[in-house]
# Entry
Amino acid sequence: MSVRLTPVTTTEGVAPFTFSEHALAECRAIMARYPEGRTKSALIPILHIAQAGNDGWLSVPAMDAVAVLLGIQPIEVYEVASFYSMFNLRPVGRHVLEICRTTPCMLRGGDALIAHAEKKLGIHVGETTRDGLFTLKAVECLGSCGTAPMLQCGATYHEDLTPEAFDALIERLQGAYTRSNYTDR
Ligand code: FES
# Structure
């Protein structure tokens, strides 16, 4: 079972959310791929767009905006967003590090890598570093078992990972100013 970050389930103190014009145009282009009445099928790519436009996480207002856009019930959005580990239901750091801990990765040192990451970052799985740079997650199989152990950061896979390679990645990201959002666009 993945360690999920405790979701923020309130709107109190949470910033409102609106899609930017650009994001809205992207959403509408994706929705147009589906037959009339079936635009709910666009939910996952639109959640990625909403998450990217909301500082890397899906607040209740962001999910509600997705529900309005797709003409579906908010609960339908919450169900999907809370099922997939790629969606963050609370604020995260600039870079979200998802280390796989399913069996093939575990057999190739995934658990030791998670322990190493916790020590290197000074946090536990599910936490964000004080400087807001890194959130560490342990997730289920990311489909790269042949190159285990691995982690995903944004849209990039880091495979055949070693503690040394992890440290090098952290040092590289410390100097990077982009947010590591995953989108499938
Ligand atoms: S078990 Fe780690 S990617 Fe599949």
